[in-house]
Amino acid sequence: MKSVVEQKVLALNGDEAVAYAVKQCDVDVVAAYPITPQTIIVERFSEYVANGEVETAFICTESEHSALTACLAASLTGARTFTASASAGLALMHEMLFVTSGCRAPVVMAIANRALSAPINIHGDQSDTMAQRDSGWIQIYAENVQEVYDSVIQAFRITEHPDVLLPAMVCLDGFQLSHSMENVKVLPEEVVKRFVGVRQFPKVLTHEGRFAPLRLDPENPMTLGPLAFPNYYFEFKRQQEEAMKKALEVIRQVHEEYAEISGRRYGDGLLDAYQLEDAEIATVCLGSTAGTVKAVVDELRAEGVKAGLLRIRTFRPLPVEGIRRALENVRAIAVMDRSMSFGGHGGAVFHEVRHALYDSEKRPFVVNYIYGLGGRDTSPMQIRAIYKDLEGILQKGRVETPIRYVGLRE
Amino acid sequence: MIVQEKGWREIPIAAVCWKSSTEFLTGDWKTFKPVRDLEKCTRCLLCVIYCPDGAIRWKADLGDIEFDYNYCKGCGVCANECPAKAIEMKLE
């Protein structure tokens, strides 16, 4: 077992923590386009470039579509690559998200979660990344600024792992994390560089009939991601699903290895359970809201209420087994969604959690709370009311309103 | 000919081509086939330059051009550009 490294404390907001982590990860290429609330990431990183603190090639593109395209191309040549976006910017990348995951390019992208237009709103919710949940990218949602920093470093190791080779989004709630300053423990640069290591390339069979490292190299020409007809396209998609399944274990391992040097753990890297062992009622959420919920759980526990929380840190790949095991002994569960799936039955997180529990013989009550859209605050009082609702469900023994809205005026 | 297609565990990841593009005979895509009138053709070679698939070649030993129907997709650019109107697109 490695010992925990001595670390200095910096006052950083979430965006600055991303930029600082990227600076330490020996990134070859950053191509980005600014958008609120992600702008500070790109600004700070461009300062590192201008000051000669990094050797990264920094490309200012004319749009987010181009930014991700440049990152994809750079990544395919073997470069360690990073970008950042949010909201409409991520939406504009939509096409290239699928090309990036399909080409198995380990691009890391930070998303400062923000609402989608219309009406225009620059504030935080998770509509932007939830809309991209089927794009083949790993999605990690951070609870606080410290975790943002830690997750970016871990993301390079995860994405570049030969069993994975999938791009990843590190998601931080817009403003709640992107613009909130916290004390952040940062590892020494040489420790981070050693941790992320040098990118490795598995060998693949090329058209020349020999095995060559998977990257664009004039010495070993190869073609990635061209036309695949109905007779082969499906097989490539199945490979991506397999990589997602393997990523579950890789994320867990990388998280554990990082915990040993940093002293910081977020559950098992996939799920972060809080007071869940003997909980009768629990909420499930992603991101910064978990901080508020934990404070409320502490209050409720002091009052003798068996309340708990399950924070899903890794939403893609979804740790289905872990969710089922963590929640099947809870009697009533409120799943919190900070986005909507219009016309669906509740939000995306609700779909997944309820789906995971279908195979449990215990089948607890599962209800949905849509909250915080467009940056609306979610208070501890509102969280308390959710737990109160769960107690009511247990008393009545039935669910009357499966989908509710938190803090919405009628 | 029955081709045994490979399973998802057997093929390279990232959709890397494991065969040369020349092994894919795209000529079977075509509906119309270019047919040359040898009397009208002046051997100006414009069709060789215009063909987007490189499927018309100048054969120095023959002193003439040759269509490679294995790769000609039947787009008709050659027939459209031929100044002598020597190429006709015929239904295959």
Average predicted confidence as pLDDT of chain A:
97
CATH class group of the largest domain in chain A: Alpha Beta
CATH class of the domain at 33-91 in chain B: Alpha Beta
Main sheet properties of chain A: 7 strands, mixed
Strand order of the largest sheet of chain A: 3-2-4-5-7-6-14
Structural class based on helices, strands and sheet pairing of chain A: alpha/beta
Strand content of chain B: 15-25%
Can you tell me the number of structural domains of chain A? Answer: 2
Question: Can you put this structure into words, describing what you see?
Answer:
The complex is a heterodimer of chains A (410) and B (92). Chain A has two domains: 229 residues, Thiamin diphosphate (ThDP)-binding fold, Pyr/PP domains (Rossmann fold); 135 residues, 3-Layer(aba) Sandwich (Rossmann fold), CATH 3.40.50.920. Chain A has 13 helices and 17 strands. In chain A, the strands form four sheets. Chain A has a seven-stranded mixed sheet with strand order 3-2-4-5-7-6-14, with helices on both faces. Chain A has a six-stranded mixed sheet with strand order 11-13-12-15-16-17, with helices on both faces. In chain A, helix 1 runs parallel beside helix 2 and helix 3 packs parallel to helix 5. The longest helix of chain A is centred in the middle third of the chain and has 30 residues. Chain A is globular, with a radius of gyration of 21 Å. Chain B is an alpha+beta fold and 92 residues long. Chain B has a domain of 59 residues: Alpha-Beta Plaits. Chain B contains two helices and four strands. A two-stranded antiparallel sheet of chain B has the order 1-4. Chain B has a two-stranded antiparallel ribbon with strand order 2-3. Chains A and B meet through helix 9 of A and loops of B.
